[in-house]
Amino acid sequence: MWLSRKNYVGRCTKFFRISLSHDTLGNYFQTNFALMQHHKYSLSELDNMMPWEKQVYIDLLLKFLDEETEKIKQEKIRAGKG
After folding, report:
1. What pLDDT does 67 receive?
2. Does 11 reside within a domain?
3. Where are the beta strands (DSSP E) in 1-82?
4. What whole-number distance in Å separates Cα of residue 20 and Cα of residue 24?
5. What's the whole-number average pLDDT of the chain?
6. Helix/strand/coil for 1
7. Global model pTM greater than 0.70
8. Is residue 7 situated within a structural domain?
């Protein structure tokens, strides 16, 4: 009836191993470096994030950067026409 802690932890570990199998060790370090250097995250902040939480922040950051790039392109187009 009750799940043992060992089973729960094992299943949790398996879930994260499967869900993050697309990420390589090199990509992990490059991503951490970029977030620390360009976006002022600390290594302890990044290490304390759940893997899915970190992915959410990266996705939101990419969306923000795409929107900013699009704004800059639109401003250049308007400046060229005016």
Report:
1. 97
2. no
3. none
4. 9
5. 81
6. coil
7. no
8. no
